[in-house]
Design a protein that fits this description.
elongated, mainly alpha, Serine Threonine Protein Phosphatase 5, Tetratricopeptide repeat, single chain, about 575 residues
Length: about 575
């Protein structure tokens, strides 16, 4: 390690943990948002520790037996992920452990993310100490990583646990690799390969690690890596990668995701320039942050951005080239930053059509930060110290404030729509939230906005289930207002838009119960909904009500209990069960 004493290193490590905790304590009070509802609340598999081994041989969304059939229960991109290549066994295992500790209390899942971020930050620090960096530079790099606001999405959003675990084990693998190179002890290499495997099982972003490790040996030639050590390291990583591929194929097969949007070669190439420009911007200037970034694929819709991005990339490359000629390794670390970004440019494998996400910078940002720290010696020391304090402090405050955006769905959706009013799916999602709160007028406005966007943006990339969700929302609002004919019309329109969707049958069956319609017809509709989607807790709750009204109390109890098994936080089903048992 560096020249400081062990006591000093421990103090710095404690300081880094304290900084992480101070920056992200505001995320601990957040609720489950977005995919958390499916991956945790609706994930029956995580409720038993004995299911952990199965997570390594099943797709991450395998628990979605029925909701995948219904784009109102889970977005179309989620549905596609279940049948394609979403493989996150370590994330599922961590969720299972968190559930064993805190059940469905989101605090424990948020705490897990903060702990993983602390671990990742510490390994960044340990890695920097093993590199030819001064102790001060190592602590600066680790502090910048700890507080960088672009990481808030990965840390404050529970569904990104896999991202954090991947980062923690990725950095651990790099640190142990450097230890192997410097000590020639094979145990460090085997440990590095083990960390690499766990990182891969957390997320595919780890696939770049062998290239980064090789890059480190080229940057720091004084390590004098022998051909024998190089062969051993490559062999160890190859074995780890082979184990990962075997388990992945066992779980998801050889399925390759289809392209989300058909476009020309020039469109895809220039999309890469746009995306790279955005990643460079956000790693340097993390503003304005958003949980959703829309990038049109056709070049005609973003040629100005492409020109600006290309110019910025050229200027930055020129600056790093100049620093390299002066003997700085900053340019080579910039190259490592580009290497770590390679997986995010596999656009045709991105099933949700979101080609830029802040969370994808969690691992690459470390290389950009080290490159920046290496440029600091060119700044006078007193100015460098002041600049570091200002940046770390500003980043920490911005990240702490940004965490609050993720505290609940309503705050998140409203924030997204302020910057992206064309994001149809978030208008419909906000509409659901407002219906639950009883704000029917504003919910109607949300669905009307969504309907205008769908009408205006009709193209091959539009989610085919969007009109289905809109009709479900408008039908629910009409039912709440006891406008039963309008509600029925919307639910029937939803059926036509998506015949395999369970909720249109569920809500129409519930409508018959509320309006005093034919109970047998209602039960038939609800049973059809359950047949389409065995995980539809709302259908089972309505079915319980229908059965109770027919005097079938025991059947009703079982239906309510099944609804609660699917979703333990389902208050209506719990209230109905208590009422039936009480009677």
């Amino acid at each position: 390690m560096n020249r400081l004493s062990l006591k000093a290193h421990l103090l710095y490590a404690c300081l880094l943990v304290a900084i992480c905790a101070a920056t992200y304590w505001t995320s601990l009070g957040g609720d489950f948002v977005l995919d958390d509802q499916y991956q945790i609340v609706g994930n029956i598999a995580i409720r038993d520790l004995r299911n952990i081994p199965a997570a390594f041989v099943l797709p991450a969304w395998s628990f979605l037996r029925g909701p995948c059939a219904d784009p109102a229960h889970a977005r179309e991109d989620v549905c596609r992920s279940t049948s394609l290549n979403y493989y996150r066994p370590v994330q599922t295992a961590l969720f299972t452990i968190a559930y064993a500790i805190g059940a469905l209390d989101p605090f424990y899942y948020h705490l897990l993310n903060v702990i993983l971020h602390c671990i990742a930050t510490l390994f960044i620090y340990f890695l920097c100490l093993e590199l030819p960096l001064a102790a001060g530079s190592a602590i600066v790099a680790a502090m910048l990583f700890a507080v960088h606001p672009v990481h808030t999405e990965a840390i404050a959003w529970i569904a990104c646990t896999g991202e954090l675990a991947c980062g923690a084990f990725y950095f651990a693998a790099l640190w142990t690799f450097v230890k192997f190179v410097k000590t020639q002890s094979t145990r460090w290499m085997f440990l590095s390969a083990g960390f690499f495997l766990v990182a891969l099982l957390s997320k595919e972003m780890a696939v770049t690690l062998p290239l980064v490790a090789l890059g480190l040996t080229l940057i720091y030639r004084k390590w004098q890596v022998t051909s024998k050590e190089l062969v051993l390291s490559l062999f160890s990583y190859a074995v780890a990668f082979g184990v990962y591929v075997y388990l992945r194929v066992l779980a998801v097969g050889f399925t390759i995701a289809p392209a989300h949007f058909m476009a020309g070669f020039v469109d895809w190439i220039t999309l890469g320039i746009s995306v790279l420009g955005r990643y460079l911007w956000f790693v340097v200037i993390p503003f304005p942050l958003s949980a959703y970034h829309s990038i049109p694929i056709p070049l005609a819709e973003r040629w100005t951005e492409v020109l600006i991005a290309a110019a910025a990339i050229g200027i930055l490359a020129s600056c790093f080239n100049r620093s390299w000629r002066r003997g700085s390794n900053a340019a080579l670390w910039f190259c490592i930053f580009l290497i770590t970004l390679i997986p995010v440019f596999n656009f045709k494998a991105i099933v949700n059509g979101v080609y830029f996400s802040e969370r994808y910078l969690y691992i690459p940002s470390f290389a950009a930060i080290i490159a920046g720290v290496l440029l600091l010696p060119s700044v006078p020391k007193k100015y460098a110290t002041v600049l570091t304090c200002i940046v770390v402090g500003a980043f920490g405050v911005l990240a702490a404030m940004r965490n609050l955006t993720w505290r609940d769905n309503e705050t998140l959706f409203r924030t997204i729509l302020e910057r992206n009013p064309q994001a149809t799916q978030f208008w419909t999602a906000l509409g659901i939230v407002e219906i639950d709160k009883g704000n029917l007028d504003y919910a109607t406005l949300c669905y009307e906005n969504a309907l205008r966007q769908v009408t205006y943006l009709q193209n091959p990339g539009i989610d085919n289930g969007e009109l289905y969700r809109i009709h479900l929302g408008l039908g629910t609002i009409a039912a709440r207002r006891q406008n039963y004919p309008s509600a029925k019309s919307h639910f029937e329109s939803a059926m036509r838009e998506y015949p395999r969707g369970s909720l249109s049958y569920t809500y129409l069956g519930g409508l018959l119960l509320d309006s005093g319609g034919n109970p047998s017809e209602a039960i038939s509709l609800l049973q059809h909904a359950i047949d389409l989607n065995s995980g539809d807790e709302i259908a089972r709750d309505f079915m319980g009500v229908a059965l109770f009204n027919q005097g079938r109390t025991q059947d009703a109890v079982r239906s309510f209990q099944e609804a609660l098994r699917i979703n333990p936080r389902f208050k209506e089903a719990q209230n109905h069960l208590n009422l039936v048992i009480g009677k």
